Amino acid sequence: MIRLLWRDITLAFRSGGGFGLGLGFFLILVTLVPFGVGPEGDMLSAIAPGILWVGALLACLLSLDRIFALDFEDGSLDLLTTAPIPLEGVVAVKALAHWITTGLPLVIAAPALGFLLHLESTAYRWMIVTLLIGTPALSFIGSFGAALTVGLKRGGLLMSLLVLPLYIPTLIFGAEVVRRGAGGFLVGTPLAMQAGITLGAVALLPFASAAAIRVALR
Amino acid sequence: MAINWNAFWEWANPRKFMWWTDRALPVIAILAAVIFVIGLVWGFFLTPDDYRQGATVKIFYIHVPSAMMAINIWAMMLVASLIWIVRRHHVSALAAKSAAAIGMTMTLIALITGAVWGKPMWGTYWEWDPRLTSFLILLLFYIGYMALWEAIEDPDTAADLTSALCLVGSVFALLSRYAVLFWNQGLHQGASLSLDAEENVADVYWYPALVAIAGFVLLFVALVLLRTRTEIRARRLHALEMRERVKNA
Predict the structure, then answer these.
(1) I need a labelling partner for B165 at 20 to 30 A (CA). Which of A134, A147, B200, B207 fits?
(2) Range of the domain at B153
């Protein structure tokens, strides 16, 4: 399993664009927002938590089809189903690799981009904490969407249609934590809810994704 | 009394399904039409205007039943998907597929009638209120579900994958419902038809509303049977065409 993890991570690093793409997209999105809403600092700092979260969401979405599609095309997914580790494990590892190559860089980049958007100084801590807790859920939910559309020729757009509604609870609680943190309110409840969603997604969704992949490979 | 469950599942055999729906469908359809008309005429013309809302209260007879159906149809799709996963009855999967479009329409009706009512009453067509937002999210789930059905060619694969989406989607739809409650305070009134609540809608509106709800349920049953029959016929036609093609080749 660890070898598979390494394989996926090195592939993401080496196979041109997969790794930096999400990060670059995140940066561009954050750069575009002030053009759209105007450069006033107050306005930007009010919407910064939401923009950062939505940006992280979309950046995650961008690289989802790489989780299974390439392996499906060159046949390694067929080999992986016959591997000694269960397919559920394969799926979980691939989602984890996706998180390490996409979610984690976003978490690290978020404070710098928050700086660009005049994020309240009290909110930085919560921005990092909530992204750290929330982005694994994005990867695992996304891997389910990717598994559903893996056999399709042009599944990309359909996948966003399927995955984005599933991201709504994570987004709501994530942005709520940052907004409350910025205002100096208690953040315990939304943080706990978000952690619950992440843990539930990590624990249960690999089974659903593996089932979907078995159907697609049938 | 022991129920013969095998006999129960027999009714889902496509041929038997076509046989009994052929006889039941006209009855259900006529019953739906009659009850629908009774409920709406009673509601629209034979109830007094509300003392604060005036005549706008009458949209209640379309708004509330369609909103209830929007949620219940998703629940029905969930059950049908589970039956497909467990017992692999093709009719079940096709019924879930047929129900989705009706459910989406009901969601749209609820949203639109709500907006029409909201303008004079709340002064706005749309507000990011938890209930309204939840319905918008439900609409997105319906659209995604239907899009997935359309995208996959092989019918069994499509049934499997949409069932998986329906199961996972149900969990996330519920999560969204409560997350949205957390996110914004509501403008929408609370439940007014609960059996256990102290404050409910007055009886004079309640009875025609019940009739209207029954009409919507029957309408849904009639439509879903009709659409499932169409799906079964379409699949038979497809099988026939394939057979012809093989014969000619």
Answers:
(1) A134
(2) 66-188+222-248
